[in-house]
TrEMBL record:
EC top class named in words: lyase
Site residues by UniProt (Essential for prephenate dehydratase activity): 174
Species assigned in the record: Halalkalibacter akibai (strain ATCC 43226 / DSM 21942 / CIP 109018 / JCM 9157 / 1139) (Bacillus akibai)
Gene label: pheA
GO biological process, one term: L-phenylalanine biosynthetic process
PANTHER family on file: PREPHENATE DEHYDRATASE P PROTEIN, PREPHENATE DEHYDRATASE-RELATED
Name of this chain's protein: Prephenate dehydratase
Biological or metabolic pathway of the protein: Amino-acid biosynthesis; L-phenylalanine biosynthesis; phenylpyruvate from prephenate: step 1/1
Keywords associated with the record: Amino-acid biosynthesis, Aromatic amino acid biosynthesis, Lyase, Phenylalanine biosynthesis
Length: 289
């Protein structure tokens, strides 16, 4: 099986992909959209992309591209603990004179306190991924630059870890989803299945007062537990939103379909984005194979 992920090598997404699939051909892509496009084009069987971080919230690029561009079914998920480190080129002796910090915007935001304390004058430059940041430092030994990335990236690009666990919050985690047009069997024995989730997209009618309240009531009286509800713009005008709703449990024959039918009867649009198992990442699969 060909498994696409947000690359280059050494990203947290690669860790997530290898935490889900023990065997397969892992193919990195430069951006989230290109990774998802590859599934549509048949270049890969599945795409593994980030969807939410415990500190920074949803990955809007993933949600918006999934909704507006490539409507691919979500068939699986995994949660990965995030441990950010400061990486420098092995040729750099003086780590106090770092002029620039490079990484993904979420990674820099997750290490805000550390950066202000240790490198208050350093410039921040955003990259497509933490792996791309590590690759940049590897390829520019002449620059006074450091990357925020993980241990896998340090090993992959031959960089030194000068500061470990520099993230502001110890409970930092990122959720990733598996997108595919076909059913997928997770074949890694290293990851543990921790929960099941059903994800819906609901669009409210513009002329229906109290519609959101009634939508939530459709779940409440059926005792369906909602683990998340989030609004995103429909991109059709100011004040127009759709809602992403996560339900605890897999799609059944009665309760969730009944709630969807009730919501549709209110004049709302409702679509199933996926009903899938979610796994917990085990750190020992992070080693480069």
């Amino acid at each position: 099986m060909k498994i696409g992920y947000l690359g280059p090598k050494g990203t947290f997404t690669e860790m997530a992909a290898k935490g889900l699939f023990e065997k397969g051909e892992f193919i990195p892509f430069r951006t989230i959209p290109s990774c998802m496009d590859a599934v549509k084009a048949g270049k890969v069987d599945v795409a593994v992309v980030p969807i939410e971080n415990a500190i920074e919230g949803s990955v809007n690029m993933t949600l918006d591209y999934l909704i507006h561009k490539q409507r691919l079914p979500i068939v699986g998920g995994i949660t990965v603990p995030i441990e950010q480190h400061l990486l420098v080129h092995p040729n750099r002796v003086d780590i106090k004179t770092i002029d620039k910090i490079v990484s993904h915007p979420h990674a820099i935001a997750q290490c805000h306190d550390f950066l202000l304390k240790q490198y208050p004058d350093a410039e921040w430059e955003y990259m497509n991924s933490t792996g791309a940041a590590a690759d940049f430092v590897h390829n520019h030994p002449e620059l006074s630059v450091a990357a925020i990335a993980n241990e896998l990236a340090a090993k992959e690009y031959g960089l030194n870890i000068t500061h470990s666990n520099i993230h502001d919050f110890s409970n930092n985690k990122t959720s990733f989803v598996v997108l595919s047009n076909q059913p997928v069997q997770v074949n890694s024995v290293e990851s543990k299945r921790t929960e099941d989730k059903t994800m819906l997209m609901v669009t409210l009618p513009a002329d229906y007062s109290g519609a959101l309240h009634q939508v939530l009531s459709a779940f409440a009286w059926r005792k369906l537990n909602l683990t998340k509800i989030e609004s995103r713009p429909t991109k059709t005008g100011l004040g127009n939103y759709f809602f992403i709703i996560d339900i605890e449990g897999l799609m059944d024959d009665v309760l969730i379909p009944g709630a969807m039918s009730e919501i549709k009867a209110l004049g709302c649009g409702v679509e199933l984005l996926g009903s899938f198992p979610v796994y917990s990442f085990q750190k020992n699969v992070a080693k480069i194979k």
